[in-house]
Design goal:
Order of helices and strands: HHHHHHHHHHHHH
Number of helices: 13
Number of domains: 1
Length: 293
């Protein structure tokens, strides 16, 4: 068992997170079998918050009171909005495409870090930025699945989610570097829990559970996504950001699209050469952004 101070601990966590999060897109797809995108996103946040509630109570007084505005902002950008945006996107695009476009996260982490948070910038990183953006644009232009240039605008919801992830990753490093990962994750979910519950009530979730024949199965997939792919994974991810850098931690997306594409292929989704080439451009772009002599 690797300890957190072991030299290979960050690499181990990256691979572990890649498998977990790479599988999340197919779980979102299965959740949509019975529930609306807003219900899937709100259920994901609500279940995660309830699972993490005991940890939140332990750290409530020490950390939340002096930092609650930042916790609320962080929770909105990293938890609630992406959960809903990915579900909305996957109602009209494939899970594999969503997984590939998710690779834009380190690109936006870098851009936002430089423009908003004053992170250092090297000229050679422009190469990586250009490759990543070009690969993403090609994917969006092919996102309809019917022909090149026929844009499915639902793909842009994934892009917006990755922008939010870019902001939240930088906020962790700049504002929460001294807060334990379990406290950070649990308290952020606690602050956003009332909003997610209100969203669920407004969508009449009870009726959906009672009447849809696939409701229990979809709820099971969302529960797995919430407990393992959201609550546990975010604790590990926040730990990774604190011990390394936001950009390094976000390079978990090197492997996430590969796992997502494998699941998409198993589920019968159409995977074209352009998808693979675009994914390669994005991953190569991430490499150049993180490359140091």
């Amino acid at each position: 068992m690797l300890k957190s101070d072991h030299r290979y601990f960050p690499l181990f966590i990256l691979i572990f997170l890649a498998v977990i999060w790479g599988s999340s897109f197919i779980l979102i797809k299965r959740g949509l079998d019975a529930f609306s995108p807003v219900q899937v996103g709100a259920l994901r946040v609500t279940i995660s918050a309830l699972v993490l509630a005991p940890f939140a109570v332990l750290h409530l007084k020490k950390y939340l009171k002096p930092h609650w505005p930042w916790f609320l902002l962080f929770a909105t950008l990293s938890n609630l909005m992406p959960a809903i945006l990915f579900a909305v996107a996957e109602s009209q695009i494939s899970s594999s495409l969503a997984g590939i476009l998710n690779s834009m996260t380190p690109i936006f982490t870098f851009i936002i870090g430089v423009l908003v948070f004053g992170s250092p910038f090297r000229r050679n990183q422009l190469i990586g930025l250009s490759l990543g953006i070009t690969g993403s644009v090609l994917l969006i232009l092919k996102s309809s699945g019917t022909g090149f240039g026929n844009i499915n605008f639902y793909a842009l919801f994934v892009v917006l989610a990755t922008i939010f992830y870019g902001f939240s990753s930088n906020i962790v490093k700049k504002r929460f570097s001294e807060i334990p990962p379990a406290a950070l994750t649990s308290l952020s979910f606690l602050t956003i829990l009332p909003v997610s519950v209100i969203l669920l009530i407004s969508t009449d979730i009870i009726t959906a559970v009672k009447t849809h024949e696939l409701a229990l199965a979809s709820l099971g997939y969302i529960t797995i996504l919430s407990v393992v792919g959201t609550a546990l994974a975010l604790v590990l991810f926040n730990k990774l950001i604190q011990t390394t850098t936001p950009v390094f931690a976000s390079t978990v997306t090197y492997l996430i699209p590969v796992v997502a594409v494998v699941w998409g292929f198993i589920d019968g989704e159409l995977i074209e050469i352009l998808h693979i080439l675009s994914m390669g451009m994005i991953v190569l772009g991430i490499y150049f952004i993180n490359y140091k002599k």
